[in-house]
Description:
The structure holds two protein chains of two kinds.
Chain A: H1 16-47, H2 51-77, H3 105-125, H4 132-139, H5 141-164, H6 166-185, H7 193-200, H8 208-225
Helix pairs in contact in A: 1-2, 1-3, 2-5, 3-5, 3-6, 5-6
Chain B: H1 7-28, H2 36-55, H3 58-61
Helix pairs in contact in B: 1-2
Amino acid sequence: MFNGKVEEKDFEKQDPEYQDLLRRVLAIQADCEIGGPNLYVKNILPTAPSKVDQLIVARTAAEEVDHFRKMAKLAGDIGVDVSYVLNWPNEKRYVEAFRGSIKTWEDYAVFGFLIDRVGRYQLEEFIDCSYAPLDRVVQDSQVIREEEGHIDFGTNKTAEYAAKGGESKDRIQKAVDYWYVKGLDMFGRTESYRSERYRQWGLKRRTNAEAREQYRQECNALIEKMGLDIPDPNKGRLYF
Amino acid sequence: MQPAPNTEALDEHLRVVIQALHGAVSRAMPHVKDDPKTAEKAIADCKEILDEVIEGNVSEWLK
């Protein structure tokens, strides 16, 4: 296990595998950050239930664009131009959860509740990671704090809809069913060779399976508390 | 290590974009109830800015 700390000036001296993995993970992280606004701005910003909600959607998108900026800067500084993801159609996104579009407020709420929560897990992977500039970005409390704000908003809205009962509860359950498996899939395959290499080089902390299981337990407790049904964790899954 | 072309320029452009979005939201949020027109204008401004981000025409941004 690699225990060193790598500064930007020493990047080129690192093992080629380390360089490749860091380039890859920064490109994927940047893509995921900009993938959210691409999913919901078009349909949800104009149609959110109130002006306050519309402003919250705009602020959330601004924060995600800022997270993209930070990842793009880290990548750019080591010679990787990730600006190509800015004009990618959604269908090309690295991560399947970002390949569609969000058209309903319920889906927007559950996206915050479940998918931004995965985003927090992914960012937490980089805390104390071996690439010091990336570690500094996530140690600065702003990025994770903002992500937690998105999660809290989505969680509260999901709980509100569930508490209303009737059709509202049915609609939110449907959205939970849809996003729950997408969230589980975002952790990747359990037997992922690349995931092990990320850990070997100190770029990630947990195995895919460990992170997914922690996430599953955290979500299940919240879903139960809201009085919703925990979806089948295997139905519609792409990666096991 | 040579940075990728336009790294600084893209970073600077996005900083300005993000600042404009946060500015619009911060100005409008306290007045949503007493001045709905200001809120509507802020929402429209944010939509216009975010539509450009989503279009992602980076070469145009950096001209």
